[in-house]
Specification:
80 residues, 3 helices, single chain, alpha+beta, 39% helix, three-stranded antiparallel beta sheet
């Protein structure tokens, strides 16, 4: 499975992050350990929600949508 996930910074709740992974637990741990340069300064991170897809192209397309303007508006209405 491929997971599109949404994170919110616990130290600065105004910061959010949208990502894609095959191993959700390990990826969240890496974000919280500072292993990702983009998210290291806003840790710790809390998982808000995730969606599972059976194919990588579907997951990547949904991640790209969530990172677009209308996708961010959708996420804000439904997840944040």
């Amino acid at each position: 499975m491929f997971y599109v996930y949404l994170l919110r910074s616990e130290s600065d709740p105004a910061h959010t992050y949208i990502g894609l992974t095959e191993n959700l637990k390990a990826r969240l741990a890496k974000h919280n350990e500072g292993g990702s340069p983009h998210t290291a300064k806003y840790r710790p991170w809390k998982l808000v929600t995730y969606l599972a897809f059976s194919s990588r192209p579907q997951a990547a397309a949904f991640e790209a949508y969530l990172k677009s303007g209308s996708g961010r508006a959708f996420a804000k209405r439904h997840f944040w």
